[in-house]
Amino acid sequence: xxxxxxxxxxxxxxxxxxxxxxxxxxxxxxxxxxxxxxxxxxxxxxxxxxxxxxxxxxxxxxxxxxxxxxxxxxxxxxxxxxxxxxxxxxxxxxxxxxxxxxxxxxxxxxxxxxxxxxxxxxxxxxxxxxxxxxxxxxxxxxxxxxxxxxxxxxxxxxxxxxxxxxxxxxxxxxxxxxxxxxxxxxxxxxxxxxxxxxxxxxxxxxxxxxxxxxxxxxxxxxxxxxxxxxxxxxxxxxxxxxxxxxxxxxxxxxxxxxxxxxxxxxxxxxxxxxxxxxxxxxxxxxxxxxxxxxxxxxxxxxxxxxxxxxxxxxxxxxxxxxxxxxxxxxxxxxxxxxxxxxxxxxxxxxxxxxxxxxxxxxxxxxxxxxxxxxxxxxxxxxxxxxxxxxxxxxxxxxxxxxxxxxxxxxxxxxxxxxxxxxxxxxxxxxxxxxxxxxxxxxxxxxxxxxxxxxxxxxxxxxxxxxxxxxxxxxxxxxxxxxxxxxxxxxxxxxxxxxxxxxxxxxxxxxxxxxxxxxxxxxxxxxxx
Length: 528
Known about the structure:
By secondary structure, the chain is α/β, with parallel strands linked by helices. The chain has helices at 38-51, 86-98, 117-125, 186-202, 246-257, 275-279, 293-296, 302-316, 335-338, 342-355, 432-435, 442-455, and strands spanning 18-22, 55-58, 62-63, 75-79, 102-107, 137-138, 161-163, 169-171, 206-209, 265-268, 289-290, 324-326, 359-363, 466-467, 474-479, 483-488, 494-497, 501-505, 515-518, 522-527.
């Protein structure tokens, strides 16, 4: 039975939505085994409603051997027992909709687990098996096929090929436990349209599409032609990323999404060389949003931020798609640490982001001002890229430490059975409990900012900003309706004239009277 869809109808709700990413392992533990789960998520949904977000994005909870924290999916229609059951997932959907929250789930279409039924059958049936055609199996190079079929590298380090016992090789752009699908095969395309409908029938409001740029590979799988280690985001033109053929896939998906009431959406994780290439995924008959990694990778510099904002807005305007803004997620160092400057800079960056036109993404725990955990012992690490000599830095565990809810000691209300990654001993002041009701806390700053963003007509949707003259190192722009956002990115105070009323500031300020001093790493919203 499909859960009732009680979210208040809204036209194009996703254009200005604030979407909160839940990493299920690390959000809340409902059964006391030290691992976050669906029951824990359900119990904390009122917190997310009160925070003021519009939708919740859940990272993968599918049946998986967990070789890459659930991004190696063995069954796209089943829940991994560590997270609960399918009725638990339905209960999360029902409760979220009752509270007025939408739910977006991760979808991982580039690759599956090596324990997926198709791949296991392909291995068992051997060379020439028709089911192997749903993946990229190839004979090797060299006199006896002992060399990989081409020079592609895994993003986790080492060759992107693994040889099986019968001598053939299979492609995996990530871990060897994550074989890539062959999206030229009609059975793969049919299967994922079926998976979309399965979750849409259960009531999900959309999908975050993992590695959306990677599904289609260049014909013939040609050599890359250079030995540079791959990065997720760069300006390389690569034979396995951002191929034009992906767009036919997403047009077919959009047809499926549009069959369902309630404005169901798809969000692309598309690492492309330029924002203009990203915009191609968002043409009116394709996907709805894409993560703005170009903004995430911009440093704390006024000129660079202004350029990134202009470039992002300019790229989305021709395809009538909203720009998205994001500072942190489960794959990058938390922005409090990454930007330098500590909590003051992180708070200032958040208010800047929330004042921009479009949709904003928050990562669990950033509203508590959590820093990256940089001193995890090697023996507790679980990120697969940490265990490889090359590839990504292997530091993703530091942003995945379970978040603190209450109490003076770990696990800080996360659950009754500890936490799968150790929490720092000095997080007591960062818990939800400690920050609630404290007007100076980061949590209350987020709550106030999100409330203003929801109610102020100048915030949220739109596709442009009006830049204002400002001292060097200061970003200043006006939104329609006379709301001005001013950001001091320098390391020194700046004297400004504010001919209006301050609505919100990222740190406590003396009440301004015309001219006033804007401290370093501070953002203010004011009304003309």
